[in-house]
Amino acid sequence: MTNPKNHGRVKAIVALRLLEVVRERDLPAELLEQENPARTIPRRLGLSDVIDRQIRAYKDDVRKGVHLTDQGIRDLFTLVNRRPDSDEIFSDTGREIVNVYFPFRWGQIFPESIQYMFARTYLARHMKHLFGRRIFNFAEGPLNVEVQDLFLRGSDPEDSACYLISGICHRILEQIGHTSVEVSHTLCQARGDDRCRWDGSIIPLTEE
Ligand SMILES: [Zn+2]
Q1: Is the peptide bond before 28 cis (omega within 30 degrees of 0)?
Q2: Cα–Cα dist 12/184, whole Å
Q3: Where does residue 138 fall: left (phi above 0), alpha (psi -120 to 50 degrees), or beta otherwise?
């Protein structure tokens, strides 16, 4: 596994959280489901050993403020993309890398339009912080985001790196509103569209 350092712009926390999500999913359910644990456990543990080592290395990078190169992060994403559960892994990672602290339930205090305004502000700020650049534009609508040629995507048509952005949008909206939200990836270059687009919305709580 590559661990390219320096001169990059992507915060190492992205890679760290991604591997932590992978590790969490692989242990222990898969271990228990194996038919012949005596044979498969050592192999699994060997694999998790590699991941543990890499997680420690990324933790070091996070502490030292090391940034990863675009190619480095794409290589890591390509590895994860080979897994059948890569959509969920990227989506979970997106939710894990943003932590917006709201001291009170803004969803009960501010009207939706203000909540969306906060969401757009936090989203723009977090993306710039994590990826070292502005990577998307806001389209017309409450929380509608568009990207052309997302740099995180590889060349694989089955690429699911877009789910990372879905996860980030989801988490920010959810934390602001303290309520259910929905984020759809409505256009995707992997599906032949000319750009990628995410539509996020807060689902208002209905009074019983
Ligand atoms: Zn996409």
Answers
A1: yes
A2: 27
A3: beta
Give me ligand 1 centre to Cα 189, in Å.
5
Distance 21 CA to ligand 1 centre (A): 21
- Residue 105 has φ and ψ, to the nearest 5°, of -80, 85
Query: Does position 1 have pLDDT exceeding 50, yes or no?
Result: no
The model's pTM is 0.86
Q: Let me know: does 130 contact 9? Beta carbons within 8 Å.
A: no
- 124 Cα to the center of ligand 1, angstroms: 18
Residues lining ion ligand 1 (Cβ < 5 A) are: 162, 188, 196
- For the chain, give the percent of residues with pLDDT over 70: 82
Contacts of 28 (CB under 8 A, 6+ apart): none
Residue type, 79: L
SS3 183: strand
| Ligand 1 center–CA 90 separation, angstroms | 12
Whole-number Å distance, alpha carbon 106 to ligand 1 midpoint, is 30
Mean pLDDT of 51-78: 93
